[in-house]
Amino acid sequence: MHRTLFSTPVVNTLLRALSLSYLKLAGWKVEGTLPDNARKSVLIAAPHTSNWDLPYTLMVGFALHLNLYWMGKASLFGPPFGALMRWLGGIAVDRSKANNLVAASAQALREADGPLQLVVPPEGTRGRTRQWKTGFYFIALEAKVPIVLAYMDYERKVAGLGPLFTPTGDIERDMEEVKRFYAGIKGRNADQFDAQ
After folding, report:
1. How far apart are CA 105 and CA 136, in angstroms?
2. Is 64 in contact with 161 (CB distance < 8 Å)?
3. Are 43 and 170 in contact (CB under 8 A)?
4. Cis preceding linkage at 80, omega within 30
5. Gap between the Cα atoms of 20 and 24, Å rounded
C-alpha cells in the first residue's frame, strides 16, 4: 500500500498530538481499542452523512493508533488534490465502472506487510440512502479478516471502535446484527442515516 500520513515518520507523531488536542477541545470522547486479531481488518464507517466525517475519522484514527486507508469516489482524486487524498489514506473508487474492487481490496489486506485497517462506508455516499452496500462485508469475508464496528455519534460526541464482527457467509442474518449495533447512533446529518 502507498505511504500515508499514518506511516510518515515525525508527521504522524505531530498529527496525533494535534488530533488528541482538537478532539478534547471540541468535546469529543474516543472509545475502544483495536484488538491484536484485528490489526488487519475492515472498519465500517457509519454513519456517513457529512464531509466532516473524513477529518474526524482521521483524527480518531490517530487517537487510536490505527493505520487507516479509506475508499472515496474517484472524482476526489483528480488534480489538484489527488496526491493529497492518497497521502490522507484514500483509495479511488470509480463507481461508474464494474471492477473487481472486492477482490483487489481483499488481496491488499492479505498481502499488507503490517497493520492495515480499511475504512468502508456501508452507505456508499453521504446522501440519504435506503440500502447499505455490502462491499465491506465481502471484502472481509474474502480476506478472512474481522469487521470492526466503528462509529461516530455526533449527538453524544463519541467516536470509536465497537465490537468485532466475523462474517459467517449468511449475509442477511449478519447484516441484521451489524445494523442493530448502529440503530441509535446519530450522524452529523441524522435525517440522512437509517440503519434499517
Report:
1. 9
2. yes
3. no
4. yes
5. 6
40-46 and 90-93 beta bridge pairing: unpaired
DSSP 8-class letter at 188:
T
> Are 47 and 152 a contacting pair, CB within 8 Å?
yes
Alpha-carbon span 144 to 41, nearest angstrom: 9
Quote the cell numbers at residue 193.
Answer: 442515516
10-residue averages of pLDDT along the chain (196 residues)? 89 96 97 94 87 92 94 84 91 69 87 91 58 87 95 94 94 92 82 56
Q: What is the DSSP letter of 75?
A: G
DSSP letter at 91? E
Q: How far apart are CA 61 and CA 122, in angstroms?
A: 18
Q: How far is CA 37 from the centre of its chain?
A: 17
CB burial of 104-140 (b: ≥16 within 10 Å; e: otherwise) equals: ebbebbeebeebbbbbbbbbbebeebeebebbbbbbb
Classify residue 96 by its DSSP letter: T
| Single pTM value for the model | 0.86
Cell numbers at residue 93, please? 473508487
- Confirm if 32 and 60 have CB atoms less than 8 A apart: no
**Residue 148 in contact with residue 117, Cβ under 8 Å?**
yes
Residue 172 and residue 78: Cα distance in Å, rounded? 36
> Which cell numbers in the block locate residue 12?
504522524
AA letter at 23: L
